[in-house]
Write a structure and sequence with these properties.
single chain; about 400 residues; mainly alpha
Length: about 400
């Protein structure tokens, strides 16, 4: 808080310190546990506060970042790493691309909220961080399966994508309504909070077992709960619940960086000195790629949207009640393109790769894990510590959207 930087940036430095301290233990995390343990609660916490109305209003911008930008980043990273390490298979290269593709906007939003930017910018970043995980982790699962089995999915994956995502939405809504019905008579605060965590992990595991998108299921589940719970749960339980979830999300972030630091320690001892130049060069190239691709994509989309709005006029067809659409600006594009910090989803996906203790270790796992942590470290330090000065230089101000609705 005193430095004005997101706390995950300092956690990343702590992870580096753990990797350099001699004698730290080697911790092996069950690959199937990593995503459920770290992603499920943090995703529910973020989706609970999301506004379906605002997401619908900014659907074009959110989908561009959450799907198109993620795909572009995956392909660019795969091409770059395959040129540096030709022996790495394309599925393994795409796996690395899928791991580092989804930005975690929570760190950026934490900084931006203090500077009071336009509300639409915060909505776009929060919406992107919700849905880019789904597209990236779908590519991740397909690529991991192809790398481990040698079976490459073709166009048949498209109906699978629609089925898993559409089924996830339906399952999330139904499970949320069932949870609200099943817990309607619970008044004890500790039991209520405990059941919230049990329900969260249960929904994730059930969706995963059914072959649905666990992320989409969790998003639909959290949004449905958020629309039902405040009308049925008294303020005393809500305040206690929010406090516990804030602490839980913070602890999970700390735990993720601690575990990744301990795994980096093991990598440092396994990799021979003759290979470190390949690791460092690969990490640097991947870091530059993810930053540049996002800047190019955001600024290009920003320019096209600006041109379309100029052609259509101030009131865009289909906007809610003739509401004037916000004209994209150069400053807004710069801020959004610089909010590409990677975080806990990238770390969890990297740790979820099968390691050497498994029956079959994932090819180039150490290199992928090293590159993933390098991207998290560089984006959090470089972008996280310069976002506040960039915001001040651009000079974007709060547009008063929230205050107007509060008055209304």
């Amino acid at each position: 808080d005193r430095l004005g930087v997101p706390y995950p940036a300092l956690l990343a430095l702590a992870g580096v310190a753990l990797a350099l301290i001699p004698g730290t233990p080697q911790v092996i995390l069950d690959p199937q546990l990593a995503l459920a343990l770290f992603v499920a609660p943090i995703l529910l916490d973020a989706a609970y506060d999301a506004s379906p109305r605002d997401l619908k209003r900014n659907f074009a911008a959110v989908s561009s970042l959450a799907i198109a930008a993620v795909v572009a980043t995956i392909l660019a990273v795969a091409v770059v790493i395959h040129r540096i390490v030709p022996a790495m298979s394309w599925p393994a290269a795409i796996t690395l691309g899928a791991i580092v593709a989804p930005p975690d906007a929570s760190a950026a939003v934490a900084v931006l909220r203090r500077l009071r930017p336009p509300h639409r910018m915060v909505v776009i970043l929060e919406g992107e961080s919700l849905f880019n995980d789904a597209s990236a982790l779908l590519a991740y699962r397909i690529a991991v399966t192809a790398a481990m089995t040698g079976v490459v999915a073709g166009w048949g994956v498209v109906p699978l994508f629609l089925l898993t995502c559409g089924g996830g939405v339906i399952a999330g809504i139904l499970l949320a309504r069932f949870y609200m019905w099943a817990t309607r008579r619970i008044v004890d605060i500790p039991i209520s909070v405990m059941l919230q965590f049990i329900g969260t992990f249960g929904v994730w595991l059930l969706a995963d077992r059914l072959g649905l998108s666990a992320i989409i299921t969790m998003i639909a589940y959290a949004m449905t709960i958020a629309r039902c719970a405040p009308a049925r749960v008294d303020a005393r339980r809500r305040i206690s619940s929010y406090a516990v979830w804030d602490v839980a999300v913070f602890v999970l972030n700390v735990l993720a960086f601690v575990l990744i630091g301990l795994q980096l320690r093991a990598i440092r001892t396994r990799v021979p000195d003759s290979q470190w130049h390949v690791y460092l060069w690969s990490a640097a190239a991947v870091c530059v790629t993810v930053i540049v691709v996002r800047i190019v994509w955001v600024m290009s989309h920003n320019r096209i949207a600006h041109w379309k709005l100029l052609r259509r006029g101030a009131h865009a067809p289909g906007s809610a009640r003739g509401r004037p659409m916000t004209m994209p600006t150069l400053g807004g594009g710069l801020i959004i393109s610089w909010c590409g910090m990677r975080g806990i989803v990238t770390l969890a996906a990297a740790m979820a790769l099968p390691d050497g203790s498994a029956a079959m270790a994932f090819p180039y796992r150490d290199l992928i894990l090293f590159c993933a942590f390098a991207v998290v470290l560089v984006t959090l330090i470089l972008q996280g510590m310069t976002l506040r000065p960039l915001m001040a230089w651009v000079g974007l101000k709060d547009d008063g959207t929230v205050e107007r609705e509060v008055r209304l």
